[in-house]
Every structure is written in C-alpha cells, then in structure tokens.
Specification:
Length: 507
C-alpha cells in the first residue's frame, strides 16, 4: 500500500469569521459520516479556548473536538486538537502542544515559534489520515485575516496538507452573509479559491423562497455552489467554545415555587462552563449567569466555576461586590459550590508567587473555608473515577467520573469531610470537600453522571425547603439524541450528494 493510498479522504469546514457555527457544522458532518458507516475523526490544528478536557492518558485538548469525537463514536485523542491556546490575559496564552503544557506566550512570541506548531499539527493530521477513512477538519476564525495570513497554518495550509475540499460557512443571522462570503472568497489566493468546493449559509430564519434569488446570484458570481441553508436552532445541545454560549442565552427556565434557582458567577475568564450543561436540562432547575450584584438576588445554589486567571477573576468579583453578596446569600441559607478555581476562591487566600497566571502575587479569598492555595507551574491533568462519601449532599457509594485541570496546591487548615473516596476507600479530600452548606471540588464534569447529580440536587432542595421533583433525566442518552439531531440537520438541509462527490473525489 502506498502512502497516498493510506491517506484518508477529507472535508474541511472553514468560516467567514469566528462564531459562525463551524464547530457545530463540523460535528454534524462527523455524526452524519459516522452513522453512514465511515470511520471518521475530527481535527482542528489549533484551538483557542478556555473550555478544555483531559483524555484518558492525561492530555489536554479543546472541548469542541471532544464533542466532535463523541459524534464520531470515538474517545478523544490529542491528535484531534494538537495545539490548544488558553488565554490567561489580553495578550497572553498558555500554549499546550499535543496535550502537554509548554509555557505562557504573547502573540508575537507565539507566532515566532509557529513553525514547530505547524509541524506538530501536520504530524497529528497525518496520524489521523492513516488511521481513519474520513477526517473532518475545522478551521479557525477566518482564512482571510490579511495581517495574519503569513502566520495562519490552521486554515488553507491544513486544507492543502489534507487535500481537502473546503466548505465556507457564513452566518446569515448577523446580516450581510453574501457580502461576507464573497469578501472571504475574493481575499483568498487563486490556488486557495480552487480548494473552495462550496458554501453553507447557517442560522437562517424566515422564508427560504425570499433567499433563493440571492443564492442564485451569489453562485453566478463565484461559480461555486451553496450546498445548504441550515436553520437557526434554539434548542440544540452542543459543546460550544468560550462565551458563544452566553450570547445565545444559555439555560434558564421560568421560575416557580418549585424551581431550583441556580446562579452561576459569570467570571471574565470563565473556563469549562460545560460543567453546568447537565443542570440546564434537568427538570425543575433554572440556570442563570450573573456578573453584577443586583442580578444575584436570593438563589438556592450559587456556583463559582473554573477560571484561567483565578486572581484576576477574584479581583473582578470583589470590585463588583459579588464576594460580599455571595457571603450574605450563604448566611441566609444559599448553598455555595466552587469548581476548580471556584473551589480555590472559597478559601482564605490564593498566592501566585511564580506568576503562573497573573501579575498579582496574592489575593484574599471569600474566606468561607479554612484553606490556602498556592499556584504552581506543575499542572494536574487527569481523569478520575471516585465514589461519593456520606455527606449532607451525597449518600455513600455513588460512582462519579470526571477530570481535573488545575495548577494549584491547596493546604487545609481544617479537615473537612471529603466528598469522594477512591476505589480502595481512601478519602480524596483534595478532589472535593463538603462543609455546612458549601461544596468545593477540583473535579470537572461530575454533573454528567445522572445518579450523583440527581442526589446532589435533591439534597440542595431539602436544604432549601423545596419539594422533591422526581427525575429520570439521563444526560448521556440526551446527548446521543442531540448528536443524532445534527445528522438529521445535515440530511434535511445539506445536499449530501454534492458533498459526498466532493469528499470522495478529494484524492
């Protein structure tokens, strides 16, 4: 078998800009090819996101490609997202290559080292092409950022490396979609224009008949087909990147006397907000994001989520008065939960002597728990399977699965009851603790497990004097149905005959 014969067929999804829906469309094609019987894998050369995941072997990668892997029926592998940039400041990002943290770099320093990153990305792409029948590539931002074109290896260079036809996605909901798509096409080099196989209009609302004349005129201009018009979906569960989620009005149901009101602190550098996704679909639960004190009101549960710059986000909370407001809510009976950085914020202080995340070296915490945290350059990335310990929030012996991503060492002044124990029965206090009305944990994703999530919410309800609402909501089964909806979306709104012709003639 020749090297060429070993290379997978490919399809690349690029966009007219960020937030146009590339990740969702790529996931939809992944699911469609998977259900059609192909061994398919996702790929994005470089992802900039604070929403990450840890693979079984401890590698860190972007959550969007984890979701796309799930659409393919695969376990995530760092080759699917070889370069991950996690912003920790306005011009500073933590650089993760093939799942391993390297160092923090500003944009100028990062671009000066891009050749190595491009080499790693090409190697990862080659690995996937040799092990799968189809690779669905996703671009980043726009392929025509003219000031960055020379340094962009994520878009057209990857399309060339994969010999992939490119579909360009435009977001009609923002307005000006034809100008956006035509401008993108015109700014491409001639050889790049040849790679463009067609366009997809995304997030359409209205009368398709009124749009059709514009589609015909556009196709005459560029001599490329519009292969589909995808409607605006209000209720589709996807693992988005960063704050795209919040602009879409994520979560929240109308409140009643029986609704559990959950307020999540909207930190400026919030990370791993998918931790809350199962709660937004749980019956009888309303999830809302707050960033100003008047918004907090009197919730039943406050969640302080993860952050990529804990000290700066803690400072933001203080300047907004949220630290005092949370303390007051707690004293009135609100349950307070901290996840990862949110866990650290619950303690007495956070120190960053090595400037791992921030220019600040110290910040006092909320002081609701008796411990101190010191940030360290060693990053803990691991998956964990634990058992719940008997506490005011959990009964003993429920299986919890999740993952940790943090750079802090927490020293306890008080030995609080542990939330979890390992398989040998040894308590895992550093993974999570329970106090009177307070929960702190380093474990991401444990709400994904149905029985522990339902048990936790039941006990919060009891504490708040709310009636129990029986729940048989199965989150993973729900996710599978949502993934199948993506495939149906492709069947209903994309000309798959044309797309299959593009893919299978790509070599």
């Amino acid at each position: 078998m020749t090297e060429h014969e070993m290379t997978a067929k490919a399809l690349m999804i690029q966009g007219t800009g960020s937030g146009v829906g590339k990740s969702v469309i790529a996931a939809a094609f992944c699911r469609k090819f998977y259900l059609d019987g192909w061994r398919v894998a996702p790929f994005k050369a470089q992802n900039m996101s604070l929403n990450s995941f840890v693979t079984e072997d401890g590698g860190e990668m972007g959550r969007a490609q984890v979701y796309q892997a799930e659409a393919c029926g695969l376990k995530p592998h760092v080759a699917m997202n070889p370069i991950l940039l996690k912003p920790c400041g306005d011009n500073l990002s933590q650089v993760i290559i093939l799942g391993v943290i390297t160092e923090n770099r500003n944009a100028r320093d990062y671009y000066s080292q891009r050749r190595n990153c491009e080499k790693q990305a090409c190697g990862a792409l080659e690995y996937l092409q040799k092990n799968y029948e189809i690779v669905v590539l996703e671009g980043a931002g726009s392929p025509t950022e003219i000031n960055l074109k020379e340094m962009d290896f994520v878009n057209m260079r990857m399309a060339k490396a994969a010999e992939a036809p490119v579909l360009i996605v435009g977001d009609i909901d923002r307005g000006g979609v034809f100008a956006w798509m035509k401008g993108t096409y015109d700014l491409l080099d001639a050889d790049e224009q040849k790679l463009v196989a067609g366009f997809i209009i995304n997030k359409f609302r209205g009368d398709i008949e009124l749009l059709k004349p514009g589609i015909r005129m556009f196709e005459d201009m560029v001599q490329k087909p519009v292969v589909g018009v995808v409607p605006f979906y209000h209720d589709l569960l996807v693992d988005e990147e960063d704050d795209m989620l919040f602009s879409a009005g994520y979560g929240g149901v109308s409140l009643s006397d029986e609704t559990l009101d959950v307020a999540v602190i909207r930190l400026p550098r919030i990370s791993n907000f998918t931790d809350m996704a199962p709660l937004t679909h749980e019956p009888g639960v309303s999830v809302r994001y707050v960033w100003r004190t008047p918004q907090l009101r009197d919730p039943d549960l406050i969640i302080i989520p993860g952050s990529k710059n804990t000290l700066e986000d803690l400072r933001f909370m203080k300047e907004a008065g949220l630290d005092k407001a949370i303390t007051q809510c707690y004293r009135r009976g609100t349950v307070v939960m901290g996840i990862c950085a949110g866990f650290q914020i619950l303690g007495k202080s956070i120190r960053d002597p090595q400037h791992v995340e921030s220019s600040r070296e110290h910040e006092t915490g909320l002081g609701l728990l008796d411990f101190e945290t010191t940030l360290d350059r060693k990053k803990i990335t691991r998956q964990s399977t634990l058992n719940t310990c008997n506490s005011s929030f959990f009964k003993q012996g429920l299986i919890v699965r999740g993952y940790e991503i943090h750079m802090g060492i927490t020293q306890f002044g008080t030995l609080y009851p542990p939330l979890f124990a390992d398989e040998n029965g040894k308590d895992s206090r550093h993974s999570g603790i329970a106090a009177d009305g307070i929960v702190g944990t380093y474990l991401h994703g444990f709400f994904d497990e149905d029985e522990p999530r339902i048990e936790f919410l039941r006990n919060v309800r009891r504490r708040r004097g709310l009636p129990d609402i029986p729940s048989n909501f199965q989150y993973q089964a729900f996710r599978e149905k949502q993934l199948d909806r993506l495939a149906t979306m492709i069947d209903d709104h994309i000309d798959m005959k044309k797309v299959n012709e593009m893919v299978h003639s790509s070599l």
